Amino acid sequence: MSNTTKTSTSASSPRRPQAMAEPGAFRARLLAFAIRYGFLLLLVGLVLYFSLAAPGFANPRSAVFVLQSVAITGILALGVTTTLVVGGFDLSIGAVATSSLMLAAYSMVVLEQPAYVAVALCLLMGALVGLINGLLIVKCRIPDLLATLGMMFLLIGLQRIPTQGNSIATGMTLADGETAQGSFSAAFLWLGRHRFDLVIERLVPVPVVIFLLIALAIWLFLGFTRHGRLMYAIGSNARATALVGAPVARYKIAAYMISGVTAAIGGVLLAARLGRGDIASGNNLLLDSVAAALIGFAVLGAARPNAFGTAMGALFVGILLQGMTMLNAPYYTQDFVKGAVLVIALMFTFYLSSRRGPSMRH
User: Fold this and answer.
1) Which of 12, 158, 251, 325 has its Cβ near the most Cβ atoms within 10 Å?
2) d(CA 320, CA 291)
3) pLDDT in the model for residue 198
4) Could you tell me the pLDDT band of residue 256, with boundaries at 50, 70 and 90?
């Protein structure tokens, strides 16, 4: 009898920890699911809510407006993403975009240059600003926030000097009393106003196509090339990456140059959409782009900067702002809501991720 009792006891004893572990394993799986897919479910829920609460939100006109706003914000956010990958941050993107907008307008309206010259000047300006930012950070060892903040203020002041703080439009009166003879060419305006006939007639604007192409290029570059993997390694541990022979300084400078060029592209597209050099049109570009890039950390539980997450973050910001506008929400509440969403997304990304077991982090 004693042997039988011992045998039955020993046979049943391993089952108790397994039964006790099942609730913990279920909670872990639920937590992992929430971290990985919670943001996407939130995005779907937001679309459904605004579709029901705001008449006209789901119609093609509203979709086009969201896509247009997402395109420019997303392009700038992708530039921020590249600097985040190498462990940096670029606060000058909004100022680069507005400087590009003003430079394009000044080139065509005041200097009477063709569209391709204006676009080339803007891209060169963005690359130059990114190069200077990179050199200040890498060679002069100025913290990235301070260097790009100083560049932001420099550009904000510089873009106002040629027109004495005025916006640029066809037929404007110049400082010497003469009238500007140039104008925005049809080819330039095509970049911001043309829509491709895809599936639904005239639904996809050119800026959206450019945004998708840039997002695809950066996603492929960061995720599937040796250079992209090295940039992630630099952001994770720059010293260790340098010890294996990687040119850390060059990659960091290249990241800021990419950020400058993408910001310049965003400014060109904004100028082409507006048809004038509006000096106040890019006021919210910095905050919206940074929010999109940081929200991207929460997409699919990536917990790191990535192009796909940034694109989804830009879409989320665009849908949120469009929905709030159509619900007649006061403009001064939009930044609060964006901030709350950003905090929640980062909480899901970092706080909940830290509670996962080591075996579930891959």
Assistant:
1) 251
2) 12
3) 61
4) very high
